[in-house]
Structure formats: structure tokens, C-alpha cells
Amino acid sequence: MNSQIKRSIKFSLTIAVITFVLAAVFSVISSSILNQVMWLIGTIVVFFIVLLGVIFDMLGIASTAADEKPFHAMAAEKVPGAKQAVYIIRNADKFASFCNDVIGDISGIVSGTASAIVVLQIANLMGQGDGSSTQITLGVIFTSLVAALTVGGKAVGKFLAINSSTQIIFFVAKVIAFIETKFKIKLLPSSDTKNK
């Protein structure tokens, strides 16, 4: 029991550190990009960040809903991605935590900050100063649109994740396998298909 608690604490701390670093990187990159481009490009960047959050939320849910059985025969036949799929499903709690809590939540926070920058750009373009009624209205409309797209997108993602979990995880596993093989980058700690 103590070893499980230690592993849980270690994983939680690792996730917290990863979240801190990724949030800082995402914020710096998005702010740098948005401050140097026109509002239209900035809007596209915001929607891309929202899409990223939706996709990773879907991946996290798919990992918890997928069944590893179809991948055992594929792994035995050395089908690319099969071992990675088994690993993802067997470690669904950690995979989902990374996808939903780390990438998903960071995307939500960064999209909010990015939205504020875009609204400020649009307001300045219209010659409206800080705190003007136009800026406040734009802020409300833009933030509401981002929130609606995020929630609506995640609802669609959840439906797809639950109903097509095996296909989604297999696709992700094949992408991971390709990257690991082609670029010699280890994305998963292990692709072992042995029983726990």
C-alpha cells in the first residue's frame, strides 16, 4: 500500500512539474505569436488551441473506454502500433491524466489568455480604449464563442471517444510507433504487452 501511495505521489508531482513547464511554454509561444500577428491570424491561433484541447480530451476518454483484447493478436503479429495501444490502454489512468488534465486544461487556460489578446487587438483596431463598452462587449462575445466551441467540441469528442475508442487508440498508437521507429524518440516508457 505504501509503495502505491509513493508511486501516486511521484506521478502527481511529475504531472505538476510537466504542467508547469508546458503551461509556461504554451503561454510564451502563444503570446509571442499573437502579439506579432493581426487579429484574424490570432483568432485562428485561438481556435487551434481550442481544437488541440478538444482532441486531447477525446484521446484521454478513448484510452479509458478502449478494449485491449483486439490488440493482442496484432501485437503477436508485430503490427505497428499494437504494442503501444496495449500500453496506452493498460496505463489509461496516466494517459488520460496527461491528455485531459495536462494538455486539455492548459489549452483551456491558454485559449482564455489568447482570447484576451485578440479582443484587445480588435478593440485597438476600432480605436476603442481600455475598458470601453465596445471592448467589454467584444470580450464577452469572443469568450462566449470560445467557451461554446470548447464545450460543444468536447461533447462531440466524448461521443466519438466512447463509440470509436479502439479505432482512435489504434490510430494514436500507430502515430506513436511511427515516431518512435522513424525518429528514434521514445514517447512511451514501455511498449511491453506482458501482463501486469
Automatic annotation (TrEMBL):
<feature type="transmembrane region" description="Helical">
    <location>
        <begin position="159"/>
        <end position="179"/>
    </location>
</feature>
<feature type="transmembrane region" description="Helical">
    <location>
        <begin position="136"/>
        <end position="153"/>
    </location>
</feature>
<feature type="transmembrane region" description="Helical">
    <location>
        <begin position="12"/>
        <end position="33"/>
    </location>
</feature>
<keyword id="KW-0472">Membrane</keyword>
<protein>
    <recommendedName>
        <fullName>Mg2+ and Co2+ transporter CorB</fullName>
    </recommendedName>
</protein>
<keyword id="KW-1133">Transmembrane helix</keyword>
<feature type="transmembrane region" description="Helical">
    <location>
        <begin position="39"/>
        <end position="62"/>
    </location>
</feature>
<keyword id="KW-0812">Transmembrane</keyword>
